Recover the amino acids of this structure.
């Protein structure tokens, strides 16, 4: 290493030590404090950002360096830097650190995050490093095992885009049955993938048991935890290796833009012989594949998302309480055939959801003083009378928006068979148990009486 480069590496030690101290400090805080502050400290504000109490938005594309030695050190990733905004950016870092801390809340291992331009690019970033041809084994088949109860876009990415590349997805139809996962794994399986609670059927599985199964085969478990958010469930704590999010949804409840994230524990379990990938998966994809493929997040979106994240816990608490009331109303309605909501006692997987879905820090909340279950904002229900009846109910909604969206501060509803899960076709929907009279409802922060009144008048039309 050139002397000049080495000098910059030595100079960076203090900055790295300060960051580590901030991280250690944040690990002692409660969830809300992490969500509000992340790693943006008073010292950093005063010394580097003119005292700004809110994380600054750096819209610049690139960072300037003092001389060629600093440039070389930075581009070799030897010093903390943000060089070029496709690779890294200070505002995006604030979001990534906060998300890594929130998903790792209560965990005694380290976590890291790579923010991405969308939930779909987060999923792509999380799976593709495992689907590479390995030296000496180029002709061997590659597969992965995934719950069939996934978001429609995920279903397409797995069954169309991966299949185009000759990679096989093996669908688990009943993810709550661990034997079904086990039967599909062979020596060519690269990872297990599940979503919970799933969109739109609220499927659930035993995370710890599926993680244990994955690790027995030296492969990681990847979980899409979009619907739960870290305020209600943190899969890494239960043994998952990697969590993906459509940050677009509950985390950016305002509805101001698309974003995604990959959060991984350090290290992960994998049978891919790649040291960097195993030791720090999120940083690996951020600095290598995503640098080359370019799906990273814009700084403006990072700031908008951070702004929404600060109130994640209290918002998920309120949305969950509203959703339970709405679910109970629908369950008792004569025109409703069936309601799926993990919080309902009638929900077949209620026992599993009850084991895993807790409002974080409720035992430290003056209102509760004990651990309380919360089940999120998403529910689905089937309307008696089939598809046309479901359309009439959807069309009758006056306050609730008809939109292919969820996790909003406003209630939104859709019929997945003709929207989010249209492309996967009837057979794909049968695999994922999505009938065409199913309405997906994401309950917002309106007063629940008004949401119920809107549903009541819409149901009166059939
Ligand atoms: C919306 C959604 C995605 C895709 O996220 P985008 O941000 O729309 O790309 C992935 N998983 C789940 C569960 C979702 O609801």
């Amino acid at each position: 290493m050139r002397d000049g480069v080495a000098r910059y590496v030595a100079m960076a030690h203090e900055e790295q030590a300060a960051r580590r101290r901030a991280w250690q400090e944040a690990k002692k805080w409660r969830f809300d404090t992490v969500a509000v502050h992340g790693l943006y400290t008073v010292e950093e504000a005063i010394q580097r950002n003119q005292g700004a109490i809110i994380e600054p938005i750096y819209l610049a594309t690139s960072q300037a360096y003092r001389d060629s030695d600093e440039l070389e050190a930075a581009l070799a990733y030897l010093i903390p830097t943000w060089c070029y905004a496709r690779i890294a950016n200070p505002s995006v870092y604030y979001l990534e650190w906060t998300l890594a801390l929130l998903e790792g809340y209560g965990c005694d291992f380290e976590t890291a995050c790579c923010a991405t331009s969308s939930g779909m690019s987060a999923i792509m970033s999380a799976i593709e490093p495992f689907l590479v041809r390995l030296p000496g084994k180029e002709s061997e088949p590659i597969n992965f095992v995934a719950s069939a109860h996934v978001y429609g876009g995920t279903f397409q990415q797995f069954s169309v885009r991966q299949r185009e590349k000759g990679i096989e997805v093996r669908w688990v139809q009943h993810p709550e049955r661990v034997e079904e996962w086990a039967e599909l794994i062979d020596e060519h399986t690269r990872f297990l993938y599940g979503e919970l609670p799933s969109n739109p059927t609220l499927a659930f599985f035993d995370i710890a048991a599926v993680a244990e199964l994955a690790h027995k085969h030296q492969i990681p478990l990847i979980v899409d935890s979009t619907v739960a958010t870290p305020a209600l469930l943190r899969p890494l704590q239960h043994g998952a290796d990697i969590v993906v999010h459509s940050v677009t949804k509950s985390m950016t409840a305002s509805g101001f833009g698309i974003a995604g994230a990959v959060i991984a524990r350090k290290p992960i379990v994998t049978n891919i012989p790649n040291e960097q990938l195993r030791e720090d998966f999120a940083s690996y994809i951020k600095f290598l594949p995503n640098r080359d493929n370019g799906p990273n997040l814009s700084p403006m979106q990072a700031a908008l998302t951070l702004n929404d994240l600060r109130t994640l816990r209290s918002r998920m608490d309120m949305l969950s309480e509203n959703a339970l009331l709405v679910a109970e109303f629908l369950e008792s309605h004569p025109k409703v055939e069936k309601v799926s909501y993990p919080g309902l006692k009638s929900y077949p997987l209620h026992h599993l959801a009850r084991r895993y879905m807790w409002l974080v820090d409720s035992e430290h909340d003056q209102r509760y003083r004990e651990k309380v279950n919360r089940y999120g904002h998403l529910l689905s229900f089937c309307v008696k009378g089939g598809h046309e009846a479901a359309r009439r109910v959807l069309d009758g909604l006056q306050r609730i928006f008809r939109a292919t969206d969820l996790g909003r501060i406003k209630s939104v509803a859709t019929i997945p068979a003709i929207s989010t899960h249209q492309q996967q076709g009837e057979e794909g929907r049968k695999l994922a148990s999505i009938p065409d009279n199913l309405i997906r409802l994401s309950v917002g922060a309106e007063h629940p009486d008004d949401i119920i009144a809107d549903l009541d008048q819409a149901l009166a039309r059939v």
The mean pLDDT is 96. Residues 3-26 form the longest helix (24 residues). The radius of gyration is 23 Å. The domain at 312-459 is CATH 3.90.1150.10 (Aspartate Aminotransferase, domain 1).
